[in-house]
Automatic annotation (TrEMBL):
Keyword field: Membrane, Transmembrane, Transmembrane helix
Source species: Rhododendron simsii
Stretch list, region Disordered: 15-36
Listed transmembrane segments: 53-79
Lineage: Eukaryota, Viridiplantae, Streptophyta, Embryophyta, Tracheophyta
One Gene Ontology cellular component: endomembrane system
Descriptive protein name: Uncharacterized protein
Length: 444
C-alpha cells in the first residue's frame, strides 16, 4: 500500500512528458478530415479501383496480393530511410537522439525528472535576474577565450567558470578563498572577477607543479597554503588569516569549494568560522559523484522535484532506462537505489574525500541533515546550464535533472550573438549543478 502511494506521489509531481493522450489526441481521433489527409497512396488507389472496376467493386485475388506486396515494399523503404537518418544523427546530436527515443520537445525536457532544491529559512532568493545573467555572459565570453589553460580536463568547464566569475563579480568580496585549486583555473577566474582583491588558495598540490607538464596559472596576489604548507579548510585558524588581511566583516568574504569533500562537513566548518557566502563547484545529483552534496541532502519527498521511486516498473524507472541511451551521466534505477530501496546520497551512502570514505546512512539521518541545512540557509541558488544541448551539443549531464538553461534550445541567434558559437563543444560537458549559498547561524 505504501509503495503504491509513493509511486502515485512520484507520478503526480512531474508533468507528463513522454506519453500519448490528452485533448489534442482526442480531437485527432474524432476528426475525419485529418484522417483522410494522411491516407496512403496505396489505399487511395485501392479505393479508386474498387469504385471503377466492374462487378460491384469485387477485386480479383491477384490484385489484392499485388496491392499488399506493394504496400509492404513502400513501408519497408520508409522505415529504413527513417531509421538510417535517426541513428546517423544520433551519434553526435543529442536532440536527434531525444527525438529518436520519443522526446519531441527538448525545451520541456529540462526538469522532467525533478530538480531538487534546498529550502531557505525565509524564502529569500538572489538579487540577480536572467537579464543580468545574459549581460554577464556577453561580457564573460571574450574573457574566457583568453584563459591560460585551454584544455582544463577534470577541471571546470565554461558553465561553472561563468558561474563563479558572475557570483564573485556581483558580490564584490574583499577577500576570496578557494579550497582546491588543481592547475589554477579557478584562481584565474576569481582574478578576472576581482583584479585587485587578495585570494587565499588551499590545495594539497601547488599549481606551479603542473607548469612542468603544461599550462597552469599561479597568481601573484594569492596566498598559497599548498604543497608542504597545505592546511585543510577545517583545520585552519581563520581568525588569524582574517587579521592578516585586515578583514573585519566576514560577509565581505567569498569561499569557493572545489575539493570533493562532504559538503555538509564543509558547510558546518564555514558556519563555525563565520563565513556567509559559499560556492560549491560539484553539487552532484543524487546517485552520482564522489562526495555528499547539498543537492543530495535536499533531495526529499516533501520538496517539489525531490524523492525517488525504486520500483522497477515505475514511470521513473522506465524514463531513466531510456535516457541512459543518450546522456552519459544519466542514472538508472539500478545505479540510483541501494539495498532496501535506499535512494539518498549515492545508493544510501554518504561519500566523502574523493569517495575514499563511503559511509552508509539511514533515511532518518539523511532527513535530519536536510533539516539542519534549512535551519542555517538564507539563500540557495543553483547555476542553470548556460545553454540547451541542441546549442552546446553536450552529451554528459541529463537535462531531465537540471533547471531551464539561460539560453534555451532553439535560440541559436542569441547563442551566436553572445559569442558562444566560437567555443569548443567540449567546454560545455562539465556541468555538475554548481550552487551558491548564503548562510547564517541557527536562531536559539
Amino acid at each position: 500500500m505504501a509503495g503504491k502511494m509513493l509511486e502515485r506521489v512520484h507520478s503526480l509531481r512531474r508533468p507528463a512528458q513522454f506519453g500519448g493522450g490528452g485533448e489534442d489526441d482526442a480531437e485527432d481521433a474524432g476528426d475525419e478530415s485529418k484522417t483522410r489527409k494522411h491516407m496512403s497512396v496505396v489505399m487511395r488507389a485501392t479505393n479508386y479501383l474498387t469504385r471503377t472496376l466492374p462487378g460491384g467493386g469485387c477485386l480479383c485475388p491477384l490484385f489484392l496480393v499485388l496491392s499488399f506486396l506493394l504496400l509492404l515494399f513502400v513501408t519497408s523503404l520508409v522505415i529504413r530511410s527513417r531509421c538510417s537518418v535517426c541513428v546517423g544523427s544520433s551519434a553526435y546530436d543529442p536532440v536527434s537522439r531525444m527525438r529518436f527515443f520519443g522526446y519531441e520537445d527538448p525545451d520541456s525536457d529540462f526538469g522532467s525528472l525533478g530538480v531538487p532544491w534546498c529550502r531557505s529559512k525565509h524564502g529569500k532568493t538572489v538579487e540577480w535576474t536572467s537579464k543580468d545573467l545574459l549581460k554577464g555572459l556577453e561580457e564573460f565570453v571574450p574573457i574566457y577565450e583568453t584563459r591560460p589553460i585551454k584544455n582544463n580536463m577534470y577541471g571546470m568547464g565554461f558553465d561553472h567558470s561563468f558561474g563563479l566569475w558572475f557570483v564573485a563579480r556581483w558580490l564584490k568580496p574583499d577577500l576570496m578563498i578557494e579550497s582546491g585549486a588543481f592547475k589554477g583555473h579557478s584562481t584565474w577566474v576569481l582574478r578576472q572577477a576581482m583584479p585587485d582583491k587578495p585570494i587565499v588558495s588551499l590545495s594539497p598540490r601547488h599549481p606551479e607543479k603542473y607548469l612542468k607538464k603544461g599550462p597552469a596559472y599561479v597568481d601573484g596576489n594569492c596566498t598559497y597554503l599548498a604543497g608542504k604548507e597545505f592546511v585543510d579548510f577545517g583545520s585552519l585558524n581563520w581568525g588569524s588569516v582574517m587579521k592578516k588581511h585586515g578583514i573585519t566583516d566576514l560577509s565581505r568574504v567569498l569561499v569557493f569549494f572545489d575539493d570533493h569533500q562532504n559538503e555538509l562537513k564543509r558547510l558546518k566548518q564555514a558556519l563555525k568560522a563565520g563565513f556567509r557566502h559559499l560556492v560549491f563547484e560539484d553539487n552532484y545529483d543524487t546517485g552520482t559523484g564522489d562526495h555528499y552534496s547539498l543537492r543530495q541532502i535536499c533531495d526529499q519527498f516533501y520538496i517539489r522535484g525531490g524523492g525517488h521511486s525504486c520500483f522497477k516498473d515505475s514511470d521513473e524507472a522506465r524514463i531513466r532506462s531510456r535516457r541512459k541511451n543518450f546522456w552519459e551521466k544519466a542514472v538508472d534505477i539500478k545505479e540510483l537505489c541501494g539495498p532496501g530501496e535506499a535512494w539518498w546520497g549515492v545508493r544510501g551512502h554518504m561519500r566523502d574525500d574523493f569517495n575514499h570514505s563511503n559511509k552508509a546512512i539511514t533515511y532518518t539521518e539523511h532527513f535530519q541533515n536536510s533539516r539542519f541545512v534549512e535551519s542555517v540557509l538564507d539563500v540557495y541558488w543553483e547555476l542553470p546550464p548556460v545553454a540547451g544541448p541542441s546549442l552546446t551539443h553536450q552529451n554528459r549531464y541529463d537535462p531531465a535533472r537540471a533547471p531551464t538553461p539561460i539560453v534555451e534550445d532553439g535560440r541559436f541567434g542569441l547563442f551566436q550573438r553572445l559569442g558562444l558559437t566560437g567555443l569548443e563543444n567540449s567546454v560545455f560537458n562539465g556541468y555538475t549543478q554548481m550552487v551558491y549559498l548564503q548562510i547564517s547561524a541557527q536562531k536559539s
